[in-house]
Design goal:
Elements (H helix, E strand, L loop, with lengths): L1 H38 L3 H16 L3 E8 L4 E8 L10 E3 L3 H9 L3 E3 L11 H6 L6 E8 L2 E9 L9 H32 L9 H18 L3 E8 L2 H8 L1 H17 L6 E6 L2 E7 L3 H17 L14 E8 L6 H16 L5 E4 L3 E2 L3 H7 L1
Parallel strand pairs: 10-11
Antiparallel strand pairs: 1-2, 1-6, 2-3, 4-5, 5-6, 7-9, 7-10, 8-9, 11-12
Helix pairs in contact: 1-2, 1-5, 2-5, 7-8
Amino acid sequence: MEEVKQFPAVERRRNVSTSLDREKGEVAVFQELGKALTSSLQLDQVLRTIMEKIDEFLRPDNWSLLLLDEEKQELYFELAVGKASQALRDVRIKMGQGIAGWVAQHGETVVVPDTSKDTRFFSKVDEKTKLETQSIVAVPVRFRDTCLGVIELINCVGPEGFDPRDLKLLEALSDFAAIALENARHVKKIHDLTIRDDCTTLYNARHMGFILETEIYRSQRYNYEFSLVFIDLDHFKMVNDTHGHLVGSRLLAEIGNALKAHCRLIDFAFRYGGDEFVLLLPQTSKDNALNVARRLHKLIRESVWLEKEGLNIRLTSSLGVASYPMDSRTKEGLLHLADEAMYLVKNNNRDSVAAANIGILPNTATAETAG
């Protein structure tokens, strides 16, 4: 009888001990995540820590972090852990589609013990991964009122359901993920502010110096050519004097967008200052850069700017081209020669293209108009 009386007490002590161990483990998790968030702005490092803790405490067959592509209103798999992780890399889920899409749309946690009984279940993911999803736990990753994504656990609901304490832990981990994601967004915005021009969103002159040094190093190493194209808008002051500086800023932004649109993916477009722009064209010879300069000269000359606003502004431009290594092997030399070529045009009736060590190209405007 004594043994029977003592057994519940022993069991209670064991349960208390297990509970205390669990609490210590959870406290350690939050301490580790807190350190990761405060000591590093590297998103990957924080998410990797969260990934490890989900695996350690909850033991799902597969789990994933889906992030929201705001522009397309689709979820994509930022992290996926488990047998199906590789197959999920190219999968996208629309807002409202499947359980993850529903959670992202409504911002609510969902526990589905049996996916065959839930009409929201999106079976096409299983068809792609060749796995069988029996249960799903999905929690929104929210920062304030904005849903940034979803953490989804596959096949971790046991016969007795999903432990409410486990759910609380998972929701806490999703909060840490949200903080990490928001921190990463702020860091990116701050970084963009340091390298981009506010008016045009092109890279600024400070960043141009860094990119130019990098391109010189790369071209030296691999024996590449590259070119710079300086662009100055002719008589731009008249636009500001006639229409005001706000219109002038909108015009610069529209021209900046046009320059970006006519660049290759490997090219760089910069606002150098005022009404001056620079294009850096990697792996581009001087002859090819002159062809680019002619096209841009024609684009600026023949376009009607701010047409949607009813202003119908027309402009011409003066362009200068210099190339590595033909004209110079230094950053300062290339900038000086391209700038000098551009000013040669400005000081000689404007509205044309010039090249370092060559001079103004003959009848640029006339030839392009005739072509």
